[in-house]
Queue: 2 jobs
Job 1
Amino acid sequence: MRGSTWVLPAILALSVAGAAVKSAGAFLYGSRSLFVDSLTCFANLVAVAATTHFYRVSLEPPDIDHHFGHYRLGYGGTIVSMLAYAFVAGIAVSTLLQSESYEVHISATWMAVAGLVLYSGAIFLAHKFGSFLKAYAVFTVSEVIESLVVVAASSGGALVNYRIDLAGAAVITAYIFIELYGTGKNVITCLSDVAPPPHFVERVKEVVESHGFRLVSVKLRKVSENLTHGDLVLRPEGLRLEEAVKRTKDVKELLKKEFNLDCSVELTI
Ligand SMILES: [Zn+2]
């Protein structure tokens, strides 16, 4: 990770301040759209903590209980994030169902604006420093979009009718469920031993054939976003055993280096 040591604490401080401002605004000034928005801020903080923790764990080298390494523990961050968002989605639905008339004070809008400024600061820093923090910037952009919805909804709720504020709360709640669906679908696919795209398999075949082998069978599965595992069965085309064994080693090394493909190779006749 590039960037100085103050960056991560600064991003966290801005995010915590953003969450605090939004929830204070929701409680003091009665906006339900701001309340639902503040719930997602807390889910976002849980998501950041979980993603950071599991990302670090996923980089641990292989050990006695994880012979292939810890890559898939990286999905722990996604799963914990989904649990946090699903929990706040439940609270949001119950808030929407308590739909008796209420009053929104225009100050709620200003609190939403303050939240927007704080989160924009966090995203700016996260985007500026390093690849891992960029992921945070991407999924925190939703906080900015939510803030914009709340600014519109809470001002409408304060100046026109509370139902506009309630509609804003419903939009943000619906958005949480859409995000949960998308993330859930993605993580299930990733955990399903999904194969890499056909052009990846084609390139593996090219490497194998350029070393004097025929690719008899290939089984590949993605372990994480960047890492693929596989089993290859190769037939040496007119190579002596010693040469075939040496070239097998070369093929394995090249596949690891070029495609981050970790594979077992079986030679056949
Ligand atoms: Zn382990």
Job 2
Amino acid sequence: MFHWQEGLFLTQAGLALDVTRRQKVGFISHAHADHIARHEMALCTAATGKLYNHRLGPLRRTMELPYREPKEFGPLTLTTYPAGHCLGSAMLLADDGKKRLLFTGDFKLGPSATCEAAELPRADILVMESTFGKPKYRLPPREEVIAELVELVLQTLAEGRTPVIHAYALGKAQEVTRLLTLAGIPVQQHPDTFAVSKVYLECGMDLGNVTEFCGKLKPGHAVVTLPKGMKNFRISGIRDPVSFAVTGWAIDESAKYRYGVDYALPLSDHADFDQLLETVERVGASEIYCTHGPADFVAHLRAAGYNAHPVTGSYQMRMF
Ligand SMILES: [Zn+2]
């Protein structure tokens, strides 16, 4: 049903999934750079289409796959489900009448302030990302991390200093912004980040009291900017900043030093180790293929009795 050729392809339908080379038709699970290319035609949700056009457009051709609406595509029926990763992020269920394959793309279980929570349909074949596929990547409860973030940001403001949060411009930045504005903290965003936020607003996602940083810091505001080290991440004119990184990798003790920030908090838009295992259990697939993760995860699943395989390089899957 699929093969891997430096990327995943649904063989019978000739459909590329998150392949980063230009294709005739490519499914895009979400608009992060490592999942998109300038395809002749992209299949995606409406929100992903808008974000994809923001990044690589304008006027790229897209065909909409709204959540939970089956669409015929050659010999397959395709249905998308929310993936809980960023606005528009989708899993793809492909049904050829005999078997169902679920491709997760990047995903996270549980609630999010800025996108729909993931839904997991049952499938016979599961192709899943497994970024945090090591037992040490068990993240603390989300509410605890959010409470810590809000407390530290409020404390920073109370000291007359400026909280500066470094986050990916698409997804994490909007999530952190919404979590802060929900706690009554207004946010100024880096212009590149704000440009993505405008797409969120166009899609009807309320981000609260957020404005673009136009060279002047407003008192009492937190600043959300690009990850450290990215071109143009610096915002000038901020005195006495206290910097934050917000990422699942913060579970590593050394993250704060690696990211060069004062605080690193483990809030992720990827499933942690326990959520990966929960996904395997809930989808109930008899064959599991893992992408984007450590070999340990496949070994862990095999030891637990699952029929699991890594997919990398030139892996060829038998067709049926
Ligand atoms: Zn992603």
